[in-house]
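Table 4 source record.
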Amino acid sequence: MNIALLFRKRSPLVEEGLPWMSGAEQHPWPAVRNSGGTGVASAILVRALMSAVEGNVSLAGTWKDGRAVMAVSTSRSARGTTAQFWLDWSTGRCGVPHGDPEKVTYHLGLLAIAEALASPKPAADFWAAYEQLLLGYRQHGWMLLPAAWKGCKLAPMKPLRPT
């Protein structure tokens, strides 16, 4: 997959309640795996995280001995409808709503979260970061402004253990 597809949306994330953040924008909060000192926001992955935090994923699971993952979520754009999507590592194919070889949607990020649920150990850094996101979301609600994050602990925490 062309990773640049995750960073194609460059406009402010107004619909997500994050008008101060733009896709593909550099910021000083890199991922744990990024040793470069700066990060770049992926609007696609931000949308996936917000959808997960809002509880929009109603079903997720794996098949083919964990080599394939699927999920069902409530649509962010057409409220009241659901979408089913999948990723099969054994064939290199996936199915996401409104996606094509040159376009991915936030559903791909939801599949990554579902895969992290199925295999939490390799995703320990993701779960630590996700726990911080949930903490901020619970403390400050939908509108996560940069000032709101100042009160959040950014020290490493134990990974969230999915049940």
